[in-house]
Design brief:
alpha+beta, Jelly Rolls, 6-stranded mixed beta sheet
Length: 458
């Protein structure tokens, strides 16, 4: 039997339950004076916040208030208590034990209980002169000051109301040599009106090149199977009548997807020993999805790159797989829509990002191997459109040739879905949030493929 990385939580759960029972009995039997003192912000809570929360909860961060200081933290304890108790914060929606995903944001049970006990005991400050050193955030960039920044050529004015079609902006990198990228951050200047950003990298053909280079995922060479095998039946089929949204871009060359910004995710950091290559002369295209927010705003989004210190062992590629040919009937609930991607050659998957719009409720991913065995690799039972995550495996997923990754997304197009824009309408694939998508981003490498370095490479 193939062992899923998610299933090994079952047996330890029995031991955990017995341990918790013992702790509860010991606590109940102990005299009051023997119990631990009430937590304080300085000694107990601040270290948890600094480690888990202040990347977003800081001045200039994505969150609406800071947790760096006692006063700003104590002012929000009512909201904090419910969010921590319910597991809403820090946001994480995948099932399974700690250790499966290297970017798991969940608090440990002990840390969660410390915060709740601190609030219930009156949120005492403690000795604020004994606070641990605050995290240093020297720039507005989460990744630190980038080695290179590429911005949209001009600002775009987002109107106060109405539909905004996808916008496309091209910007040269002006790189004169290969760059190996360790982390990428996309930063809108007006986050309120930016729903998502996709950044593509296109390398204009070199007139002096002898022949075009094969593109991983599309062609693996004349005598090799393609790296990725897509299901054509799940590609976009325009319904009748035609719609004005598009699955792909307007007629133009976009190149390979290299960066993603969605609610909840603005940074991608590639694992040690891997990096993403940006070639000399690359032109970036920003695909911008804007949403009117009640007042006119100007946005000029930028992408920041931190470069690797050396040529990596493996090159990371950013891909995706979809099902664009579905219908969500009006008023229907719990509608399942599948998608899949096959491996023509062995690949190593480092991360997956599920994406639906307001009707998406949950996701399930499986690895189906050529020997007919399968395992669950990602289970997202409570998908949240407002907190979308690239789930990065602590140990990369080895996908043999002939295997496939399957996804199943579920949707609620009924009146029971309080976020449903219009339960009286059949829904198809569409760019706008009142339509839907069944899309998975994927970061992968090709094991055994030699990474070559050009002179002066970064």
């Amino acid at each position: 039997m193939t062992r899923s990385p998610l299933t090994h939580r079952i047996v330890p759960a029995v031991g955990i339950a017995l341990t918790l029972l013992g702790v509860m009995l010991a606590f109940r039997a102990a005299p009051v004076g023997a119990r631990a003192a009430d937590p304080t912000f300085a000694a107990d809570v601040a270290p948890i916040f600094y480690k888990n929360c202040t990347t977003c909860h800081r001045p200039g961060g994505m969150a609406p208030f800071s947790l760096l200081d006692y006063d700003t933290a104590a002012a929000h304890i009512d909201q904090m208590r419910g969010d921590v108790a319910d597991g809403v914060m820090p946001p994480w929606h995948a099932e399974g034990p700690h250790g499966v995903f290297r970017n798991d944001r969940r608090l440990s049970d002990a840390d969660k209980q410390t915060i709740l006990r601190w609030i219930d005991a009156g949120a005492q400050p403690g000795d604020l002169t004994q606070l641990p050193p605050k995290p240093d955030y020297p720039t507005k960039w989460v990744i630190g000051e980038p080695d290179a920044i590429v911005s949209m050529p001009d600002s775009f004015t987002v109107p106060a109301a109405g539909k905004v079609d996808y916008q496309y902006f091209r910007a040269p990198t002006n790189f004169t040599e290969d760059k190996w990228v360790q982390s990428i951050e996309i930063m809108p200047s007006a986050r309120e009106v930016v729903h998502h950003v996709l950044v593509y990298a296109y390398v204009p053909p070199n007139p002096n090149a002898a022949a075009p280079q094969p593109v991983p995922g599309l062609s693996g060479g004349a005598r090799q199977m393609p790296v990725l095998i897509r299901n054509r039946a799940q590609s976009m089929t325009p319904p009748d009548p035609p719609r004005d949204d598009t699955l792909h871009a307007p007629p133009r060359v976009l190149g390979a997807l290299v960066g993603t910004y969605v609610p909840g995710t603005s940074v991608i950091e590639f694992p040690k020993g891997t990096a993403l290559r940006i070639r000399p002369g690359t032109i970036l295209t920003f695909q911008m999805h804007y949403t009117a927010h009640g007042h006119e705003m100007k946005d000029r989004t930028s992408v920041g790159f931190k470069f690797a210190q050396a040529v990596p062992d493996e090159e990371i590629f950013a891909g995706y797989f979809i099902n664009g040919s579905f219908t969500l009937p009006a008023g229907a609930k719990d509608i399942a829509v599948p998608a899949e991607i096959g491996a023509g050659q062995p690949i190593r998957v480092w991360g997956l990002m599920p994406h639906t719009h307001l009707r998406g409720t949950r996701w399930l991913y499986k690895l189906e191997k050529p020997d007919s065995t399968s395992e669950v690799i990602l289970d997202v039972p409570h998908y949240d459109f407002n907190w979308q995550t690239y789930y990065m495996f602590a140990t990369p997923l080895e996908v043999p040739a002939g295997a496939k990754i399957t996804s199943m997304a579920w949707y609620d197009n009924s009146t029971a879905n309080k976020h449903n824009p219009d339960p009286t309408k059949d829904v198809h694939w569409g760019d706008q949030t009142w339509e839907e998508m069944q899309y998975t981003g994927m970061l992968y490498s090709i094991p055994g493929r030699k990474v070559t370095a050009a002179p002066g490479i970064h």
